[in-house]
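>> received
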Amino acid sequence: MAKCAICEKGAHFGNNVSHSHRRSNRMWKANIKSVKVNVNGVAKKMYVCTSCLKSGFVERA
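>> returned
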């Protein structure tokens, strides 16, 4: 679910690095919103990232 339906942006993985340089796993999640979108004139619910919403790749219903 945490993936954009338009650009396929999803979660990224990496490390938390402390001051003493010890490392633990962490995750960055994409800013995904559930939005009603016009698809061929029909309102459909999709998961879209905010960068796609801002740049106008989808038309809200």
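>> The radius of gyration is 16 Å.
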